Amino acid sequence: MRIIKMYKKFLEPFLECLGQFGRLYAPVRKNGVLTYGPIESISEAVFSDEHPLIPIKKLFHPMKFDMFRFGESGFQPDYSMVEKRVIIGVHPCEIHSLLRLDDVFMADPPDPYYSQLRHNSAILGFSCMPTENSLCTSTGTDIVEEGYDLFFIDLDQFYLVWVGSSLGHDMILCHDEFFEDEVTHEDIAKYVAWREKRNLAFKKSFAFRNMPDLMELSYNSEIWEQFGKKCLSCGQCSMVCPTCNCYDTTDVLDVSNKVSGRRERMWDSCMFVDYSLVAGGHNFRATRADRLKLWYTHKLKTFGKEYGRPSCVGCGRCVDTCPVDINVLTVSQALSAREVPK
User: Fold this and answer.
1) Is residue 39 very low, low, confident or very high in pLDDT (cuts 50, 70, 90)?
2) Quick one: pLDDT at residue 168?
3) CA angle at residue 94 from 89 to 97, to 5 degrees?
4) What interhelical angle do 223-230 and 328-337 show, nearest 10?
5) Which of 333, 283, 252 is nearest to 66 (CA)?
6) Closest CA to 230 of 325, 339, 135
7) What is the full DSSP assignment across 257-285?
8) H-helix or E-strand containing 139?
9) Sign of the torsion formed by the C-alpha atoms of 165, 167, 173 and 177
10) Are 240 and 318 in contact (CB under 8 A)?
11) Which of 37, 269, 310, 314 has CB 3.0 to 4.6 Å from 139, enough for a Cys bridge?
12) Angle between helices 223-230 and 288-297 (to 10 degrees)
């Protein structure tokens, strides 16, 4: 691991030069909403503590795309969405979410679409301060040690830059005159002070480490029925969660030919009533209470048991967006108190 220093005046010209490594992507403001998207100039990027509404998963696990075309002679995969990319301004919790998605999509056999998008994308992480509902200090995802090519920590006049890969090293070389190898004792003191200031800025937390046991002990609790009465089954929690990864597929036949067409893939959610509907009309999770219990059991207990780290990365988007206030905070509070918050 190499840690170097760059003064802020060099940030924009350095990032502009990274276009030689792929198309630049960053958080941008569209119709008042912060979202990840391609940029033509670094001046379009919005670097802030705010999270984009839809997480970075949309760049690796697209909302909707054509997987392949099929016909009498077989099928032809469609990888037209794959391109070399440099994604700038990624917060620590987002990088952790990609590592969770890697566990799912890169396992043997890997998902070819996710895998190609991942292998062709560079990640440039940026530090951030907590927002109103940030929970990443509870989930241990406020700091990253892997999953990036470069990571910038903002220390007012300069950045400390972590080089996390050989590609990140190559990027530095395109303007190595911007960087200093010497990190002084004073610089280290500023970094320590920044971490202390940031840790004190978190406004909310929950007992994340207790959740697997509480979920196990509360599997038959009446709180799920109470939450079920409030839930709208709108699926917003799944859409904004950076680690939700379920999808559905549909074959779309060409109008003029009944044996040729394309297969579409699109996001799905276990919060939708027909998600667990099977042949014969049986639905394994017909009630909203059952679907909620599945969602939170997966986030807070079973994913960690399967992959060694829980699925929730503490971004707080479920707290920001659920219209009836069902989220990791209210669920953890209810599991502890045996009462759904008013």
Assistant:
1) very high
2) 97
3) 155
4) 150
5) 252
6) 325
7) -TT-EEEEEEE--TTSTTTTB-TTS-BTT
8) helix 136-139
9) negative
10) yes
11) 314
12) 110
Which of 321, 288, 331 shows the shortest CA–CA distance to 133? Answer: 321
- More confident of the two residues 340 and 250: 250
Q: Where are the beta strands (DSSP E) in the chain?
A: 2-7, 23-30, 33-38, 64-71, 74-77, 85-90, 121-126, 150-154, 158-163, 179-180, 247-253, 261-267
Asked whether the beta carbons of 207 and 336 are under 8 A apart, the reply is: yes
What mean pLDDT do residues 81-91 have? 98
Tokens representing 233 are 């089954």
- In the block, which residue shows the tokens 């599991």? 335
- Tell me the two tokens of residue 295: 């969602």
Mapped onto helix, strand or coil, the DSSP state of residue 196 is helix
Mean pLDDT of the chain: 95
Asked if 135 and 93 touch (Cβ cutoff 8 Å), the reply is no
Pairing of strands 261-267, 247-253: antiparallel
Q: What is the pLDDT of residues 162-186, one digit of tens each?
A: 999 999 999 999 999 999 999 999 9
- The span from the CA of 341 to the CA of 330, in Å, is 6
User: DSSP 3-state assignment of 133?
Assistant: coil
Task: Work out the pLDDT band at 269, boundaries 50, 70, 90.
Answer: very high
Q: What is the pLDDT averaged over residues 15-39?
A: 97
